[in-house]
Amino acid sequence: MLIRSITESADGLDTESASNLFDDVMNFAKYGFNKSHAAAYALIGYQTAWVRHRFPVEFYAALMSYCRRPEKRGMVKDDMTRHGVALLPPDVNRSRARFIPEMHAGHLAVRYGWCGIKGLPEDMGWLEEERSRGGPFVSLADFHARCRKRLNKDHFQLMAAMGAFASMVSVRARAAEALERLEANARRPGGGGAGLFGEEATPASETGEWSDLAEREFKAAGFYLSGHPLDSYMEVLAGQDTVLTRHQCRAAMRRKGEARLPGRMLCVLVRDVQMRSTKSGTQYMQVLVADRDEVFQVNCFQERAADPEEAREEMTEFREVLRQAKADGKPVILECDVSLSEDGERVWVNGNWAIPFEEFEGYMDVSGDTVVLRLVPPEGAADADHLAASLPKAEAVLSSARSEDPRRSLRVTLACGAARAEVPGRYAPRLARQLAVMGGIPGVTALQYEAAGTSTN
To answer: What is 242-360's CATH number, 3.20.20.70, 1.10.700.10, 2.40.50.140, 3.40.50.2000?
Structure first.
């Protein structure tokens, strides 16, 4: 109908031109933003920025309350820390259903809301009503007696893990244990909240704090509230930009307009390792990991190699590194390729290799300009001949570690006896596995650093 109207108007186009014009309009409609849409978002952006600048505590409280994804709350919490806004743990005598501003130690802070604890009933407004009606809770027994009809044992454990009873009992494990005894007493025929001889149940003083407190917090909140297990490791990595988080990779790809970042390094905790098979029968690892910002899945496929047995051995070694890290509860440095979806929202991570953090840490203190890899030639082979044969292999292995930044890159030199040869280009020190092992190059016996212009035989 539109094409007919165009062609039949007084200054109309021919049918073919009108059809082409209509196609152009349709194509533009697929991605074009109209002015009203852009103006509406600009206004919301301006209003949000104004509130964030003028009323940061109220802004953070609202943002934490309406974040649907726990990992987003974790990122907001980190931003609060950077801007000096404290996030107070939940408290049975202070918290409300949502996060609220609260005066603390002379400064406004954000008090954690019940909506931020996974597993609690959605409607927790009754708890505030109970406080208004019966007064503040004076003990664990008082809380249990007044709330046990609305909450169960699992709810008590979640609240204890988040520190909601710290105003009564400072050790969270003791609070959980006392509430468990109170619940057990109440379930006995004729039982109540008191102990066997009528005394009020109190925490056992000898009970220590949970060793896995951080993990219990994570289970309840979906992020680490008191402190992230990776914090101490990230402090070691501070001041360098070779080890990133998945969120930082996503931001870098969006900023640069790139769809893939190969050979990136992530510092992660391993949560689960499972072997899977594709429809064609190819085995791969599905690994659940957590970095400083979020929990995500990594797929690790067996490298295509001329020797299938060698590839299987590498995959087995890769799996054992991850499983050992999971058992020890210690992080690994994961070398991976990161890809971004067309809409810029979804991120895929394919793992290539992993090394324990302690091993990676040994390669961080680069005190020289050149990495020297010393080779031992096979029996009967001349030093110069073995060096010439190894050079192209070294260049191929190190190709994914090339760096254009002279401030954060190294030269790589192969040394075999008195013979020396520099691998063309400069390389980032982040791929410690390649630098230390030099896959496919036999006879690497030593790794050392040299200052520019020196030579050590």
So the answer is: 2.40.50.140
- Under DSSP, is residue 282 helix (H, G, I), strand (E, B) or coil? coil
Please state, as a whole number, how many other Cβ atoms lie within 10 Å of the Cβ of residue 263: 17
Residue 136 scores a pLDDT above 90? yes
Q: Hey, which residues does 269 pair with through a beta bridge? A: 290
Give pLDDT tens digits for 215-233: 899 999 988 888 888 888 8
Summarize pLDDT for 335-355 with one digit per residue, the tens: 888 999 888 788 999 998 888
Axis-axis angle for helices 70-82, 56-66 (nearest 10): 170
- Residues in contact with 55: Cβ distance below 8 Å, sequence separation at least 6, in sequence order: none
Instruction: For residue 94, give both structure tokens.
Output: 């202070």
| Contact partners, residue 258, CB within 8 Å, separation at least 6 | 252, 340
Q: What is the DSSP letter of 399?
A: G
User: What does R_g of the chain's alpha carbons equal in angstroms?
Assistant: 30
DSSP state string for 212-270:
THHHHHHHHHSS-SS--TTHHHHHHHTT--SEE-HHHHHHHHHHHT-SEEEEEEEEEEE
- The single residue listed with the structure tokens 């020289």 is 368
Question: Residues 101, 65: contact at Cβ < 8 Å?
Answer: no
pTM > 0.85:
no
Helix (H) or strand (E) holding 34: none
Distances (CA, A) of 326 to 59, 68, 280, 330: 37, 28, 29, 7
Residue in the structure block whose two tokens are 């790139």: 258
Looking up tokens 């027994």 gives: 141
- The sign one gets for the Cα dihedral 232, 293, 77, 208 is negative
Say what angle helices 213-221 and 172-187 make with each other, to 10 degrees: 70
**Distance (Å, whole) CA 444 – CA 438:** 7
Cα–Cα distance measured from residue 168 to residue 179, given in angstroms and rounded to the nearest whole number: 12
From residue 52, how far is each of 29, 46, 214, 274 by CA, in Å?
A: 34, 10, 30, 43
Q: If DSSP codes are grouped into helix, strand and coil, which group holds residue 319?
A: helix
